[in-house]
Batch of 2 targets.
Target 1
Amino acid sequence: MIELQELEKVYKNGQVALRGISASFKGRVTSIIGRNGAGKTTLMRILSTQLIPTSGSATINGMDILHEQDRIRKNLVSIPQEGRPIGLLTPFEHLKIYLAARGMSFQGATEASQYALKKLELWEFRNSPTDTLSGGMKRKLFVAMAIASGAETVFLDEPTTGLDPVSRLEVWSSIKELSSEVLLTTHYMEEAMALSDDIVFIDNGMIIKKGTINELLMDFDGKIRVESTQPVSGWTRIGNTYISYVDTDSASAYVRKGYSVKQVTLEDLFVRYGVQIES
Ligand SMILES: Nc1ncnc2c1ncn2[C@@H]1O[C@H](COP(=O)(O)OP(=O)(O)O)[C@@H](O)[C@H]1O
Ligand SMILES: [Mg+2]
């Protein structure tokens, strides 16, 4: 469980990245979703003790990020955004060196590496230089590092950004193999839906909305999405489409006027809470 109390981060140049956020994340997998610059990476770096907050505090399973950094680091694996393995090393070497650096014995590291490589179907590539692996395989190698470490908590910062759809699915299935508590950031709604129990929308350094997928949809006032290709004042514009949300009762009136209507989906939460849709 991760608890945040009034967590605030102002960078040296005056940029405010987190505006005093308080929340607790209890799900096995929690997705933090928000557009670029929302504050996702800042939050992950603070929670993984790589960055000190300007004010406020947080705990991970009761351990304080400011006063129990060593304990947190022992129990946590944080995979950075844009993380790249070292190209000359093979996946097997990577894992063993990483685990040894975390304090595992040679024997333990070898066994845990074998287990994780097999689990994520990286075994046949274990002795190839990571340079020769696809982008998806490289990301999977990081997930393998997390699995092999046995860490209680795993952070993944945008694990599939920039991957093709097939690689993305592969990385998703590798993330599903993690038995730790997982906090991941993404700007893909489908990713949050596919992987997480709880979703936290963040924008401009604030938590805009938080809940399970069902709770978020239940809360949404206006169960029907009405679309127009012509500008309508007061409606939200997405590309060339104008969108409004209405009650089920009034939907038929819009159909008669020739608008197209749809049941709301999680994608609509994106629109409502101001998060960008990938185009
Ligand atoms: N080292 C830094 N110095 C100054 N501003 C930063 C730094 N890192 C991030 N920021 C700013 O803080 C805000 C949040 O950034 P970040 O946490 O990286 O967001 P996200 O990961 O959601 O894209 C942005 O406005 C970003 O430009
Ligand atoms: Mg980021």
Target 2
Amino acid sequence: MKDYLVCVDSDGCAMDTMTIKHVRCFGPQLVKEFGLGEWEEPILARWNEMNLYTKKRGMNRFQGLLLMLEEVDARYVKISGLEKLANWVNHTDAYSEASLQAAIEEAKGSGLLEKAFAWSRRVNEEIQNIPGEEKREFPGVRDAFEKIKAVADLAIVSSANREAMEEEWSRRGLLKYVDYAMAQDVGTKAACIRKMVEEGYEKSKIIMVGDAVGDYLAAREAGVAFYPILAGREAASWEHFSEQVLDEVVSGTYTSKRQKEEFDVFEHGLL
Ligand SMILES: [Mg+2]
């Protein structure tokens, strides 16, 4: 066990798997499941924008679904059952199938909750159908991992499904760099980071690398540093991490002032 620990998010951060999932699976299945073909083009554009290029990047699929359907309801066509969906999304303690299933039973015949469930299942199937060779790490990731492993331990901190994540990392030969693999089954990202503190790493020697504001908030909640991977500039972000930020972390010069400089560029780039 080394003194330093680098926590890395998976989707959209280390792995270039986020854009493809939204463009090819989430958006098209939403249009299909909710019968919105008439407004397909603006809905797909808005779905991708919201989930990839705004401060809500990385939000849970059901939070995204609710926001999208609220916009559709306001702009295009009345969506009935929105209150029941909103009630579940805003109050559930887990965005799991079991929790959604319980809400469906409780609501006794809310078609919208049932559609949300069916949509989520179809998205999972579509994601499974993405050929493995299209799910790759961003350029610069492997090089960064080599450099990280020379001075620190490495943990995956992801809110993705564990099997999918491990399959993606293993297919690319990246699991050999990983000391801890944590996914949604471990808990929130903040909970995963706290687990590493319990494991014995000092908070001041942990950094979370992520591509979404939620990753930053998890790092802040757990009391550790954060470094952003910028959407659309992932390779340059990883190179910058390898060539400058990692050294700063290990020499104690990645201060809150330095973190704010990186964070400001990140936040400025998101809608
Ligand atoms: Mg991510």
